[in-house]
Amino acid sequence: MSQTAHIPSHRKPRRGASKLSLRAGVAGGVLSTIAVAGAAGPANAEPLTETVEMPTLTSLDTDLASVVAASAEASQQEALDLSLRAQEDAALQKAAKEAKKAKAEAVRKAEAEKAEAEKAEKARSEARERASRTASRTSLTAHSSAGTSAGGSSTASKPVTGSAAAIVAFARAQVGDAYISGGTGPNSWDCSGLVQAAYRQAGISLPRVSSSQSSMGTSVSLSSLQPGDILYWGSRSGSYHVAIYVGGGKYVGAQNPSTGVVERSLDWDMPSGAVRIV
After folding, report:
1. What letter would DSSP give residue 172?
2. What's the rounded Cα separation, in Å, for the pair 149 and 141?
3. I want to staple 217 with a disulfide (CB 3.0 to 4.6 A). Which of 87, 130, 173, 277 is the partner?
4. Coil, strand, or helix at residue 240?
5. Where are the beta strands (DSSP E) in the chain?
6. For residues 164 and 226, is the Cβ–Cβ distance under 8 A?
């Protein structure tokens, strides 16, 4: 026996020929079956195929981009509309403020012009009234002087009779009484209250207020006054004060709270005009 007879070999054992033959036979059978099936089918048959379309990512991305773009455009348009409305509102508010300011300025200017016109008219009226009083005072003085030179006495020396006498006597009897607005006697008077009461002594009924009293009777010039005539200050239909002429260039009237009922010369406060009722 050799020395290596009992040493086992380290090489892998080769596959058996029988196994290789078996596998070759199986493969050949499969190929034969496929060949037979192919031969058995129609000569012009086409291979059976079925295509299933699946959604692609490219289409989904395109749709999503369109939606996002439309949303962004809508948001931008909405923001633009809001901005335009805000600008319109601001413009309207500014226009309203400017219109209100212009109206207020126009009203103020109109009131100022009206006040200035009234002031100018009042000044002209006062100037005309002063001129009229000056002219009346000059005429009255000249008339009194002429009467004294011709007859040796003034009109005060002429006797007062009838209704005029009663009016003058009553008026003079109240000199020294108090002045109270709205007073009608017996110890306090206002100007028209005294005139009304004096004429009542002569049986003549007069209205209560001065503007109505001076509107009655016949208008006479201050140079032709007679005792009992009603003197007025202001316009005839809008007088603010009345008194009674008592002769001799004097009158009796309820002047104001500080003086009461007084007898004064016409020169002390020249009246605007006179009316004659008796």
Report:
1. H
2. 12
3. 277
4. strand
5. 178-179, 188-189, 218-220, 230-234, 239-247, 250-256, 260-265, 273-276
6. yes
Decide if 245 contacts 231 (C-beta within 8 A).
yes
Cβ(189)–Cβ(183) below 8 Å: yes
pLDDT one digit per residue (tens) for the chain, 278 residues: 445 445 555 555 555 555 545 455 545 554 555 554 455 555 455 555 555 555 555 666 777 888 888 888 888 888 888 888 888 888 888 988 888 888 888 888 888 888 888 877 777 766 666 665 555 554 554 444 444 433 333 444 467 788 999 999 999 999 999 999 999 999 999 999 999 999 999 999 999 999 999 999 999 999 999 999 999 999 999 999 999 999 999 999 999 999 999 999 999 999 999 999 98
Considering the segment(s) 160-276 as one domain, its CATH architecture is Alpha-Beta Complex (3.90)
SS3 250: strand
Buried b (16+ CB within 10 A) or exposed e, 16-25: eeeeeeeeee
DSSP at 1: -
State pTM to two decimals: 0.47
Place of tokens 């000056």: 134
Q: Domain ranges in the chain?
A: 81-149, 160-276
- d(CA 29, CA 262) in angstroms, rounded, equals 163
8 Å CB contact between 188 and 257: no
Q: What is the DSSP string of 193-227?
A: HHHHHHHHHTT----SSHHHHTTSSEEE-GGG--T
* Structure tokens given for 99: 């219109």
